[in-house]
């Protein structure tokens, strides 16, 4: 998860660079489609492997894809990738890296509450304390900013918040299905579904870029951004996310979202020149303290 957090933290800056070469909606759809294309052969290979092992009577950690679970994989792909990453990418073009990372840092609050409601984990005092402290750190990071919902930046923050809410469905449902399916199966099937959702938008955006004469101007920088965000940040990191989700409570994984402002904002300051303020330092310290409180909770039993 430390590796995943680093990749996702850098993802903000990579996206900002990519907007110089690719339109936001095009980058969002291309990113998801790229992840789906990469994972489609994996999904087919896993399905065929499970079928061969089943016919041969061999024991396998792979589960046959049931018709009832197709809907669940479609939901995972729609909420966890198509909506979450698509809306997040588009919203990033409207706001700063610091703002976007701050909004993402509120996600674990809702993940913990949803996991508690569905009986996936307990709501201990230490977890509550950690979430409150970390959330306070997120508020400190945003202190002193003038929020105006009519501004493009604030609208971007609102879209980012909506993208974060979709992670709740993704994490809770993924936790349930992770008990039955292999982590690679989960990732391959839901990422492939998200690619299908994104395909019509990607084709539409490709046509728009060609008509505007912008397709040839994308260059290696633009396609490199698509590869980083689609293959590394989406396909690879989501597979690791699902693998860890089998062994770790959802709130502990979600709490690591708090670390994205701590790493993402300083990286953006170095590369993009975004300001690194005292609010970021103070808020980052609170975030780390909150994450430590949640991660060190010894009362959780699976």
Name the beta content range: under 5%
Question: How much helicity do the residues have?
Answer: over 70%
* Count of all domains: 1
Taking the sheet with the most strands, its summary is: none
The span between the termini is 19 Å
Structure annotation, total helices: 12
What class, by secondary structure content? Answer: mainly alpha
User: What is the typical, i.e. mean, pLDDT?
Assistant: 82
Descriptive tags:
mainly alpha; 12 helices; 0% strand; 302 residues; 76% helix
Structural write-up:
With 302 residues, this protein is an all-alpha fold. Helices cover 76% and strands 0% of the residues. The relative contact order is 0.22. It has helices spanning 2-18, 24-55, 67-92, 97-104, 107-117, 125-141, 152-177, 183-211, 219-245, 250-255, 259-272, 278-295. α1 runs parallel beside α11 (259-272). It has one domain (2-55, 66-295). The longest helix is centred in the N-terminal third of the chain and has 32 residues, at 24-55.
List the helices and strands and how they pair.
Blueprint: H1 2-18, H2 24-55, H3 67-92, H4 97-104, H5 107-117, H6 125-141, H7 152-177, H8 183-211, H9 219-245, H10 250-255, H11 259-272, H12 278-295
Helix pairs in contact: 1-9, 1-11, 2-3, 2-8, 2-9, 3-7, 3-8, 4-7, 4-11, 5-7, 6-12, 8-9, 11-12
